[in-house]
Specification:
The structure holds two protein chains of two kinds. Chain A is α+β, with helices and mostly antiparallel strands. Chain A is built from five helices and 13 strands. In chain A, a hairpin with a 5-residue loop joins strand 9 and strand 10. Chain A is elongated. Chain A starts with a helix and ends with a helix. The chains are: A alpha+beta, B alpha+beta. Chains A and B meet through loops of A and strand 7 and strand 8 of B.
């Protein structure tokens, strides 16, 4: 092949590859899309938390509201926890108990306490969807999960303020749903595993309808979080996520 | 040879008074130390018994059969139907009183921080037979049934800056494996004999604890007291049998001595201390052995003379043994009486272990008041005499083996 032809071939090959370079997503972009697809202007849902441990199975029901990526309110409707609420707003988590005359503000290690004895922590249940604020991202290729082609990403915490210093997540390439996640310590010890077992499509977005979480620090324990209903972008009272409303 | 050995031995004791006093003092010090130690041990044992049966286990404790297996998870759902259990237990001969309790770990939420406590739900009426709260309350009053009221240990209240009239929110896990919180008013402050209780506990009415923990009509444990003259283990067995027919689930019904490991260790320690006592006396007896040997060497010619006059070897042994015994009796008597005096003084002033026991979770009171126990005094007195006297046997027998001719020539 003459020199001219060789240069032309290489240039053509490079030109053909440019689109793939241009359209290949970075880890950060995947995370942004992942957070965006799970975030609605507003939402209202009802669901069940089912926990199985050495003593048997326990079910708790709830109603939940959210606004954007930061505000969420959960109210438990099952008899054992009736009236108890969890509010996340302005970066803090508050608990309301009907028989307590004050709100309980959770801070520090208390955020990692279990909700209703489940494998979910308060932080897990009310987490803000601003992953890039807290984590650096590395894209580690692709894998298939539940028949779906997924990006595999490793998230490393930027500070010690987060519950999980390292996360490995499998994000659907089409829907940006997190199918599976492994949460670990900085030394690599596995803390929790999450897996989506069933999905629901709302407003063109795919979300986990049934999610299984396993706390690896507990023996013989697993929790299923099941969404029974989900409505999005509905009008919500502006004061719904206020501390005053929490006590009503 | 006709000789009144006891009279001679008694006179010989005064021949070198300083040496005899030295020997007696060594035995007295040992006797005094052992007397004080055993009295203290006895006091610790009875104090622990009183604390255990009052604050922790009663004389008999009844729990769900599976509770112990999962105890570290605080399985409140493994509970007892309190009224049924109490009514059934009270039908058993030998049961004097019964009360229901719920012990549960909780947090007092103050200024945004959680402070761990051990909360106890009790029926203050039936508790009277177990804990005399009226003598423990230093400020305020007892909580009333049906009211969200608590009393705090005095050290806990001081550390949290809480007083009578203050309100505090308590968070805890419930029997339904959820969580709950309730705000209580502090109506009383109590000072418990066991420092750990004053540092960590909060008492509330049983019905409020049942409401907080979602344990309606349930209790974590039922405690019993037995009538005088009844064996706790036998009564526990009878109660277990009655409950096995009346309840759907099994129970763990045990006497308090079978529950507390620390009490068992104390009982074992008592035996070890008796052995140590013997070692103490042997050590104290080395002085008297030494002085007796010195006496023998000093009175060698005298021994030779006595032998020449017809005193047998056995009589010589008995003579020196008697001398040693008289010194032992004197030393033991002085030592025992001094020990009794020390115990008597301590029974008035008390032994304050508050600093030493801080941070230590033992069911022994912070301040102990040892009591004079005349049986122990008698035991120590006899023990000291026997061991010290036997110790003088060694040099005394040496005296019997001395050759008369050699002894007479001894310079």
């Amino acid at each position: 092949m003459s020199k001219t032809k060789r240069i032309a071939s290489i240039s053509l090959l490079f030109l053909l590859m440019i689109p793939s370079f241009l359209f290949a997503l970075s880890g950060e972009e995947i995370i942004r899309k992942m957070d965006a697809q799970a975030t609605f202007e507003t939402s209202y849902s009802t669901g069940t938390i089912r926990t199985t441990d050495r003593f048997g199975t326990k079910e708790s029901t709830f109603k939940a509201w959210s606004r954007g990526a930061s505000d969420s309110l959960i109210e438990f409707t099952s008899i054992a926890e009736r009236g108890q609420k969890i509010l996340r707003t302005r970066g803090s988590i508050y608990l309301f108990y009907p028989d307590a005359q004050e709100l309980i503000r959770l801070q520090g290690a208390a955020l990692r306490q279990s909700v209703l004895g489940s494998d979910l922590s308060y932080e897990d249940m009310t987490e803000e969807k601003n992953t890039l604020n807290d984590y650096r991202v590395v894209l580690n290729g692709s894998e298939t999960v539940n028949g779906r082609d997924c990006h595999v990403l490793t998230l490393t915490a930027k500070s010690r303020q987060v519950a999980y210093p390292v996360q490995k997540i499998w994000v659907d390439k089409e829907t940006y749903l997190v199918w599976k996640a492994e949460y670990s310590t900085a030394q690599g010890r596995l803390l929790k595993e999450m897996e989506v077992l069933d999905t629901i499509t709302v407003a063109g977005r795919t979300l986990g309808r049934e999610t299984r979480i396993e706390d690896k620090m507990k023996r013989d324990s697993a929790t299923w979080m099941i969404l029974d209903t989900l409505e999005v972008n509905i009008p919500l009272d502006r004061n719904l996520f206020s501390l005053e409303n929490l006590t009503w | 040879m006709t000789i009144k050995l006891p009279a001679v031995a008694f006179r010989n004791v005064f021949r070198n008074l300083r040496r005899s006093i030295l020997s007696a003092v060594a035995i007295a010090v040992s006797a005094m130390a052992i007397m004080a130690l055993l009295a203290l041990l006895e006091t610790m044992e009875s104090d622990m018994e009183a604390n255990l049966t009052s604050f922790y286990t009663g004389e008999i404790r009844i729990r769900h059969a599976e509770y112990e297996q999962y105890e570290r998870y605080n399985p409140l759902h493994l509970s007892l139907e309190s009224d049924s259990v109490i009514n059934a237990a009270l039908t058993v001969e030998g049961v004097e009183a019964a009360t229901a309790r719920i012990n549960f770990p909780a947090n007092l939420y103050l200024d945004g921080k959680n402070n761990g406590v051990m909360a106890v739900g009790v029926n203050f009426d039936t508790e009277q037979a177990f804990i005399d709260f009226s003598t423990l309350i230093t400020k305020g009053e007892l909580p009333k049934e049906g009211h969200n009221e608590i009393i705090l240990g005095s050290i806990l209240a001081r550390e949290l800056g809480l007083g009578v009239g203050d309100k505090v929110t308590m968070l805890t896990s419930t029997a339904l494996r959820g969580s709950n919180a309730m705000t209580f008013e502090v109506v009383g402050i109590a000072s418990f004999p066991v420092g750990g209780l004053s540092t960590k506990t909060a008492y509330m009415p049983l019905d409020r604890a049942q409401y907080l923990l979602r344990m309606e009509h349930q209790a974590q444990q039922v405690l019993l007291l037995t009538k005088d003259g009844y064996n706790e283990r036998a009564v526990a067995a009878s109660v277990q049998q009655v409950l096995s027919t009346s309840l759907e689930h099994g129970t763990e019904t045990r006497a308090w001595k079978d529950l507390n490991t620390m009490y068992s260790y104390l009982s074992i320690a008592k035996f070890i201390y008796y052995v140590m006592g013997a070692i103490f006396f042997v050590l104290g007896s080395t002085v008297i052995i030494n002085t007796t040997m010195m006496v023998i060497y000093e009175r060698m010619r005298e021994i030779g003379t006595l032998g020449a006059l017809g005193m047998q070897g056995k009589e010589l042994t008995r003579l020196f043994l008697l001398e040693g015994s008289f010194i032992s009796i004197a030393g033991s008597t002085i030592g025992t009486l001094t020990g009794v005096l020390i115990i008597y003084i301590l029974s008035r002033t008390g032994l304050n272990f508050t600093e030493a026991m801080s941070g230590v979770d033992m069911e022994i009171s912070s301040i102990l008041y040892p009591q004079v126990n005349w049986l122990i005094a008698l035991f120590v007195w006899v023990y000291a005499i026997i061991i010290s006297s036997l110790a003088t046997l060694i040099p005394s027998r040496k005296a019997s083996k001395i050759q008369i001719v050699e002894a007479l020539r001894y310079v």
